[in-house]
Every structure is written in structure tokens, then in C-alpha cells.
Amino acid sequence: MHTSVRFNGKLPLVGQNDKGQKTRFDASMDFSGPARYASPMEVVLESFAACSMMDIIAILKKMRKELINLEADLEAERADGHPKVFTSIHVRYRLKSPDCSLEEFNKAITLSIDKYCSVAAMLRGSGCSITWDSGLGRA
Q: In the chain, where do the E strands start and end?
């Protein structure tokens, strides 16, 4: 895996992976107004959700479940002092499926958070507590 990030005299920073896909990172460091793009820490939080959701989707598809909609809302706390790492994250997962039980959904979430999601493992390794809850909506 390879990526690079460039600063060309002004924000946003632009990251580019070896496939040519770009990510923009911003902050209100230049005081010219609000940031137009996500901060690096917001991207880490979004990456955690995306990593976990991709696992959940794959697991539920292997169970032959139909997924209409999957959402994750995250609340995070950060350390007061530097480095301001995440200290806790709570995820609220919501699934809309005509044939997936809450038990099956929870099994997929548990497998993702505890076994498969690399971003969750890195966050836990830094001392971050990860909690979650879930709910179903019917199609």
C-alpha cells in the first residue's frame, strides 16, 4: 500500500493513493474561514465506521441476508492533552433488512469490532474504548 499527501502553500492537504484516488484534509488553521473538508481525526473516525460497515455487509451477505440500508452514527471523546487521541467511541448501528434478525446483525457487528476491523484494532491499541448498540428497521 502506498499513499502520499501534499501541501501546496495552502489548505486543504491532498492525499493520493497509488490508484490515483484523492482525499482532501482541512482545518481552520489559516483563519480564512471554516474548513471545507474533514480534519484528519474526523477522517479516522469515518474510516473506523466504513471499515466496520464493510465487514458487517460482507458477513451479512455471507449469511444470505438482504440489506437495504446500513448506517453508523458515532460519538467520540478525545484526550484533553496532546496528543489528543480518541479515548472513547460509541457507535449506533442501524440496519434496514427484510430478513435479518437482531441476533444475526449483532453477531456481524461483534465479529467486525472484535476480529476483523483493522481500524478498530488500531484504535483499541491506542487505549480507546469502543462501545456500540444496534437496531433494526423493517423494509
A: 3-6, 13-17, 22-25, 69-78, 86-96, 129-137
